[in-house]
Specification:
Layout: E1 4-6, H1 27-35, H2 42-51, H3 54-65, E2 73-82, H4 111-123, E3 128-131, H5 141-155, E4 160-165, H6 166-175, H7 180-189, E5 194-196, H8 205-211, H9 218-230, E6 245-247, H10 265-278, E7 284-287, H11 289-292, E8 306-310, H12 314-318, H13 327-336, E9 340-343
Parallel strand pairs: 2-3, 2-8, 2-9, 3-4, 4-5, 6-7, 7-8
Antiparallel strand pairs: 1-6
Helix pairs in contact: 1-3, 2-10, 3-10, 5-7, 6-7, 6-9
The chain binds iron/sulfur cluster (SF4).
Length: 357
């Protein structure tokens, strides 16, 4: 249950009414449009993907990045994904992490085991945890509420946590026979402040039906997200209700049912640049050290402005991701690229973005 597009707001209208013939499909033409602060359409994005060089994509992405961030600036967090259970009945064919309830090897972490992971996170200089497990039919709502309340009581504001992906939230609400609104209130009462946009993956009904057919529809996903927002929980939306950040993780195919080939870092970087150019109202575009290791920082030259230094994520590690705890080496690489990384504390909230969004 991964992935994450957080929010949605538009000051512009995506240019869909133009025919390709009426567009100036050249780097200079599209660059002139971006320089005027205008939004590009799908035809232009597709043309850039097919025709623009890496250097040209970097240059265009920098134009959009500079609307929100000082050149040479970037932020990062040290965080841990706490995989509290690997038991799951959703059976996504791209997942190497889950065990069915009938299989050997399933687990559920105790409070003490979770605390040990959070203590280690704090000792390594991190202060953000994200809880991500599976659709475990043996876990009642009380497991979640007691766990989150215990974390809030033990750590207070010294540590923030993202409680579950939206997909897990939907499952626990259904399992407890509660509406999404009621479930959100119960979690909020247990000290939860954040339920983020994870579990979106490729958010189309067609993809869901083919690859995660037991995992809820896109329409249900949006209903749950709406209930979460209305309950006053945070989902990484910005001050105007739009998306504050976007992070795409690349797919790790190893040991999954679907298999496949992992894309190269070079291809990922082109995606990242195009995301920055196309998602021109999302201030924070994040690059993924978890799936691309140190090379992910080259994404700072492709429009990204923020990254995690993760210390654990069993889901992606089971599918082939590797993690380094040599944070100084990674941060120094950012410096070699010309960026000064500054730690970002989730508990301090979002800045006022320079474009006023
Ligand atoms: S991706 Fe998440 S929901 Fe899908 S099988 Fe794996 S743990 Fe379950």
């Amino acid at each position: 249950m991964r992935g994450g597009v957080h929010g949605a707001a538009a000051n512009y209208t995506r240019g869909m009414g133009h025919s390709a013939a009426s567009l100036d499909l050249s780097v200079a033409g599209i660059g002139a449009k971006i320089a005027q602060g205008l939004r590009i359409g799908r035809d232009e994005a597709r043309w850039l993907w097919m025709n623009a060089s890496d250097a040209e994509l970097c240059s265009l992405a920098a134009m959009v990045r500079d609307r929100f961030h000082e050149p040479g600036s970037c932020t990062y967090m040290v965080m841990r994904i706490v995989n509290y259970t690997n038991v799951c009945v959703a059976q996504c064919d791209y997942c190497a992490f889950y065990k069915l309830p009938t299989q050997d090897g399933g687990y559920v972490l105790s409070h003490d085991e979770v605390f040990a992971k959070l203590d280690e996170l704090l000792a390594l200089g991190g202060d953000l945890a994200a809880f991500n497990g599976g659709f475990n039919p043996h876990l009642p709502l009380s497991y979640y509420c007691e766990l989150f309340a215990a974390i809030r009581a033990r750590y207070g504001d010294a540590l923030e946590f993202y409680a579950l992906t939206i997909a897990e939230f939907m499952y626990l609400a259904d399992h407890a026979k509660l509406s999404y609104a009621e479930a959100a209130q119960r979690l909020k009462g247990a000290g939860v402040r954040w339920i983020t946009g994870g579990g979106s993956e490729i958010l189309t009904e067609e993809f869901r039906a083919r690859h995660s057919k037991f995992k809820y529809t896109v329409a249900e996903y949006f209903l749950a997200q709406k209930a979460i927002v209305e309950a006053g929980l945070k989902t990484e939306k910005n001050q105007t209700g739009g998306l504050a950040s976007f992070l795409c993780w690349t797919f790790k195919p190893y040991f999954t049912q679907i298999g496949g080939i992992e894309i190269s870092t070079a291809e990922h970087l082109r995606h990242l640049a195009l995301c920055r150019i196309y998602f021109d109202n999302i201030p924070r575009i994040r690059t993924s050290v978890l799936t691309q290791n140190q090379q992910a920082l080259e994404g700072l030259n492709y429009g990204a402005d923020d990254f995690d230094l993760p210390i654990e994520d069993e889901v992606t590690q089971k599918a082939g991701a590797t993690i380094s705890l040599d944070f100084e080496r990674i941060l120094n690489y950012a410096r070699e690229l010309g960026y000064e990384p500054v730690y970002r504390h989730v508990s301090l909230g979002e800045p006022r973005w320079t474009d006023g969004s």
